[in-house]
């Protein structure tokens, strides 16, 4: 039973729900004392923000705490280790000063690998010897741009690998104040065909602000720039952004303006569960975006307790295709934040993907996965096989820092407990050489390489 429905004929006003006002919601009254305490404690460490649409239209209050959208948006006790939970809980109960609490919280956050895959060191572009703020350039063809005003979201996913953008830790935030450096960098790198506007969620920005960042790009002579992507969760967590917000039409006209220039607009939509497409307003948002000529691509990590069921993925992809969207990626939960709460063994991720893939028609088989966005690139788990008498993971890179490594098959020893790329060992001598090559190109920390 949903607590209430959201009218689609009116224009609801966005209201953020955080630790400060969550007790005012109808959902709070349905939560146990332990669940409420978890919100108080865990949200000191990990960001907590949602909105009334998510809580009222997507969370099923009769299924607490197992409801997937509750797990996806509301802090849970298992997201911190027992010791870290007790540390923060004890500090709160003892009434420690804000400075003392902040020191303990900061120490816990630093243990959670706040910027995985070398984001703070390996991906930062340079122009004329100067590091550029608010940008990442990991793959040759794609540049990521983080507009300063877009470094928040309508609601935070509890698994989010960008959580460090939201907690105010010194030196952990990507943010670009304006786009003059962006234009110069694009002009100096004609190999970049794709500009990904990301965050946070850039579509929390009012359209005039978004246009202020994009206008210099659209006005510049950049013949190599073919595609502009917008990474967003707004389509699921606040679809009103595209339907009834005061500047919804202005945003759609911006998409049309980009397309009229001969460029492709791709909305990289984060849908984690079929319920996010179950409301009339969510489907109307999709319809209006597609009517501009923009394409919507669906992507999500595989998340224990949220979508670790192949039937859910098949349903999500079928529904998306029926609405005109393109299934794009199933990711492996990244090695950051509360990963221990959400991650699954790689073998189980591969099994879930295979079962889900088998349950859809060819139109949905555009999807790729399960894929790990690791330091060397996007590592696809292609299968499990026996090679030369040894059980192995069959792997390949869909994207790579080193372009020559893309789509080259390689093998890792089968490990039923492994949950991430850095836990895998090369299966054969030639694979050890390839692992070492990837590591050297990434300039990452040394890892143990077993030569068989």
Q: How is this fold's topology laid out?
A:
Elements (H helix, E strand, L loop, with lengths): L15 E2 L8 H5 L2 H10 L7 E2 H7 L9 H6 L8 H12 L4 H13 L15 E2 L2 E2 L3 E5 L2 E4 L34 H9 L5 E4 L9 H13 L7 E6 L1 H4 L10 H13 L3 E7 L9 H12 L3 E8 L7 H13 L3 E7 L6 H4 L3 H13 L9 E6 L3 E11 L2 E11 L9 E4 L15 H14 L10
Parallel strand pairs: 6-7, 7-8, 8-9, 9-10, 10-11, 11-12
Antiparallel strand pairs: 1-2, 3-4, 5-6, 12-13, 13-14, 14-15
Describe the structure.
By secondary structure, the protein is α/β, with parallel strands linked by helices. It has a domain at 16-110. 33% of the residues lie in helices and 18% in strands. The protein has 15 helices and 15 strands. The chain has helices spanning 26-30, 33-42, 52-58, 68-73, 82-93, 98-110, 180-188, 207-219, 234-237, 248-260, 280-291, 310-322, 339-342, 346-358, 429-442; strands at 16-17, 50-51, 126-127, 130-131, 135-139, 142-145, 194-197, 227-232, 264-270, 295-302, 326-332, 368-373, 377-387, 390-400, 410-413. An eleven-stranded mixed β-sheet has the order 5-6-7-8-9-10-11-12-13-14-15. Strands 1-2 form a two-stranded antiparallel ribbon. Strands 3-4 form a two-stranded antiparallel ribbon. Helix 8 (207-219) links the parallel strand 7 and strand 8. Helix 5 runs antiparallel to helix 6 (98-110), helix 8 (207-219) runs parallel beside helix 10 and helix 12 (310-322) crosses helix 14 (346-358). The protein is globular, with a radius of gyration of 22 Å. The N and C termini lie far apart (56 Å). Residues 1-9 and 444-452 have low confidence and may be disordered.
């Amino acid at each position: 039973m949903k607590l209430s429905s959201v009218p689609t004929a009116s224009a609801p006003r966005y209201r953020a729900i955080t630790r400060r006002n969550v007790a005012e919601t109808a959902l709070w009254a349905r939560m146990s004392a332990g669940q409420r305490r978890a919100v108080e404690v865990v949200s000191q460490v990990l960001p907590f923000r949602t909105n009334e649409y998510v809580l009222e239209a997507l969370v099923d209050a009769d299924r607490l705490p197992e409801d997937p959208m509750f797990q996806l948006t509301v802090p849970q006790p298992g997201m911190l280790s027992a010791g870290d939970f007790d540390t923060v809980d004890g500090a709160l109960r003892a009434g420690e000063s804000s400075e003392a609490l902040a020191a303990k919280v900061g120490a816990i956050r630093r243990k959670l690998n706040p910027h995985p895959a070398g984001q703070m060191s390996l991906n930062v572009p340079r122009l004329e010897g100067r590091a550029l703020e608010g940008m990442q350039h990991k793959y040759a063809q794609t540049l990521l741009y983080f507009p300063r005003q877009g470094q928040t979201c309508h609601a935070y996913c509890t698994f989010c690998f960008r959580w460090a953008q939201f907690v105010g830790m010194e030196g952990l935030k990507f943010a670009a104040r304006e786009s003059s450096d962006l234009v110069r960098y694009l002009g100096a790198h004609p190999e970049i065909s794709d500009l990904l506007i990301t965050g946070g969620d850039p579509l929390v920005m009012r359209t005039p602000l978004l246009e202020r960042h994009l206008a210099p790009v659209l006005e510049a002579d950049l013949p190599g720039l073919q595609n502009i992507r917008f990474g967003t969760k707004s389509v699921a967590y606040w679809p009103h952004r595209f339907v009834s917000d005061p500047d919804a039409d202005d945003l759609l006209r911006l998409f049309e303006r980009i397309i009229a220039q001969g460029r492709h607009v791709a909305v990289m939509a984060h849908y984690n569960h079929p319920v996010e497409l179950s409301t009339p307003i969510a489907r109307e948002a999709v319809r209006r975006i597609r009517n501009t000529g923009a394409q919507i691509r669906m992507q999500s990590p595989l998340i224990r307790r949220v979508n670790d069921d192949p039937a859910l993925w098949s349903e999500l992809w079928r529904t998306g295709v029926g609405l005109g969207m393109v299934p794009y990626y199933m990711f492996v939960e990244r090695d950051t934040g509360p990963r221990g709460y959400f991650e699954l063994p790689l073998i189980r991720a591969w099994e879930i993907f295979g079962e889900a893939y088998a349950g859809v028609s060819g139109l949905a088989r555009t999807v790729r996965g399960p894929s790990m966005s690791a330091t060397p690139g996007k590592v696809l788990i292609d299968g499990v096989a026996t090679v030369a008498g040894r059980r192995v993971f069959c792997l390949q890179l869909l994207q790579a820092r080193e372009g020559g490594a893309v789509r080259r098959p390689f093998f890792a020893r089968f490990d039923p407990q492994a949950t991430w790329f850095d836990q895998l060992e090369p299966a054969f001598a030639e694979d050890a050489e390839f692992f070492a090559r990837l590591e050297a190109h990434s300039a990452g920390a040394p890892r143990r390489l077993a030569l068989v």
